[in-house]
Amino acid sequence: MPARILVAEDDLKQADLIRRYLEREGHLTVVVHDGRAAIDEARRRSPDLLVLDVMMPKVDGLDVCRVLRADASNGAGLPIIMLTARSTEDDLLLGLDLGADDYLTKPYNPRELVARVRTVLRRTRVRGEGEVYRVGALEIDPGRHEVRVAGELIDLTPAEFKILACLAASPGRAFSRQQLLEHAFGFDHYVFDRTVDVHMMNLRKKIEPSPSEPAYLKTVYGVGYKLADKLAADHAS
Q1: Distance from C-alpha of 215 to C-alpha of 225, rounded to nearest angstrom
Q2: In this structure, are residues 135 and 171 in contact, taking their beta carbons and an 8 Å threshold?
Q3: Residues sharing a CB contact under 8 Å with residue 220, sequence separation 6 or more, in sequence order
Q4: For residues 25 and 4, what is the distance between their CA atoms, to the nearest angstrom?
Q5: 89: how many CB neighbours lie within 10 A of its CB?
Q6: Which tens digit of pLDDT belongs to each residue from 123-133?
Q7: 46-71, pLDDT tens digit by residue?
Q8: What is the pLDDT of residue 134?
Q9: Radius of gyration, alpha carbons of the chain
């Protein structure tokens, strides 16, 4: 399905190449060349997806992502694919924490970017239509992008919410760390065990009555993690 896509890339030739490939797919594409313009255009046009270069003048891509994710009226749910020349684990963790939906390292094939755009659009459109999942005092609402425990709204990072929503879509199913990254973000090339483990530790601190003895976010030894489909008797209230 055609989408409105904003491309923020300061390399003029690369930006034009991306535009032509996206327009060939039928997408309405607008290109800007600095971070300040990216923020302004995202707020003005409310695009369906943002292709965002990390290294840009005026405001870098990481700060663009940070600003838009804090902008509840437009940017909080905006799908973002980051483009970067850096591919270290710390870069990936930072991109996840800021709310990137996918992460492509330069140099890349424009056809791969188009495929990632297609996947992210499909995944985010489905994500917004999910049912509310409840177990015990925990409530996960993908459509409203909210998580509550005993009625209290819990403040999660975009990465934490995506992992939790992924688990909630298949309660009781065990996911490997790689599967969680692929299903929640599309990161199929940059997989680090610590990435998911760090987010899971932080999630447990926020939603579990006793993080050291989790009732909701279960470790499946030798596999990964799952979200409980019911509470054990000693955790039920």
Answers
A1: 12
A2: yes
A3: 174, 226
A4: 11
A5: 13
A6: 766 554 557 88
A7: 898 999 999 899 999 889 988 888 77
A8: 86
A9: 18
